[in-house]
Design a protein that fits this description.
Length: 283
């Protein structure tokens, strides 16, 4: 399916940002997942760091990240990420990872060490983490939260009915429980989740997921259009019109989300700092 006129994807640029990332030997989900916004974000000297390597132990049909046996975690990675964040002059850093089901803690320790390293280089940097589900393990989740990120993000991605086709190795209820438990363990930390549209979901299903997220205490919500990153990924079922995204944004605010970003090119980490600062400034 051709992209409709309301989806204009800019080519990746910002060679200065890429040069800094390569110099420090760090990966970004912007590049690995072929995010359509990487040109914009790199031009603004922002990036979402991807830790724990670039090989995932799961094989979600929507994702472009390579699925294969990962390498052992690099103990120097947290310091490299911190150095890159400092070199980019970031005020807000997002840290995500591949899923590491091969590790006893799912990589939670590496998240905690990276948070601490970034804070060591820049105490004023706000930090958001976008984590996998850690198979629902409470101790792994606690390990990340004890490092005190400013925002804890875990994406449910799609509606429960589509999990077998979209996230066959994940479980919807486990993902919602991760967010519920995060808010229970650290109520002062903002929680966040995201949805992709255009995979065949219905309005009723979307609103049901939004309600589940609010019941889990989720503060922030992002909703974007699924764009097929490659021929081996699940096809787009529908391109949802911008006005429909706006309707979901309004409904999300009415449900009680503190902030909702909803548009065809919205992505989980795009303008994350602006979303956080808007809420802080509104207090």
């Amino acid at each position: 399916m051709r992209h409709p006129e309301w989806i204009k994807v800019k080519s990746a640029g910002a060679h200065a940002t890429k040069k800094i990332l390569r110099h420090h030997g760090v990966s970004t989900v912007c590049e690995e997942a072929r995010c359509p916004n990487q040109g914009k974000c790199f031009s603004d000297s922002t990036a979402t760091f991807m830790i724990l390597g670039d090989r995932c132990t799961r094989n979600c049909s929507f994702c472009a990240v390579e699925s294969s046996k990962p390498l052992p975690p690099d103990p120097r990675e947290p310091e490299r990420v911190a150095a890159a964040a400092a070199a980019l002059g970031l005020k807000y850093a997002v840290i995500t990872s591949v899923t590491r089901d091969d590790l006893p803690d799912g990589g939670a320790g590496q998240f905690a060490e990276t948070i601490q390293a970034v804070r060591g280089k820049g105490p004023s940097i706000r930090i958001e983490v976008l984590t996998p589900d850690f198979k629902g393990d409470a101790e792994s989740l606690k390990k990340v939260l004890d490092a005190r990120p400013d925002v804890f993000n875990h994406n449910v991605e799609t509606v429960p009915r589509l999990y077998p086709a979209v996230r066959s190795q994940a479980d919807y209820r486990t993902s919602v429980n991760v967010l519920t438990n995060a808010k229970r363990l650290r109520p002062e930390i903002r929680t966040k989740s995201g949805l992709m549209l255009g995979l065949g979901e219905s309005e009723t299903e979307i609103l049901s997921v939004m309600k589940d997220l609010r019941d889990a205490g989720c503060d922030f919500l992002t909703i974007g259009q699924y764009l097929r990153p490659g021929k081996t990924n699940i096809p787009v079922f529908e391109y949802v019109r911008p006005e429909v995204f706006e309707e979901y944004r309004i409904k999300g605010l009415e449900m009680g989300f503190a902030a909702v970003a909803s548009s065809p090119l919205t992505r989980s980490s795009m303008d994350a700092g602006e979303m956080f600062r808007a809420i802080k400034n509104a207090k």
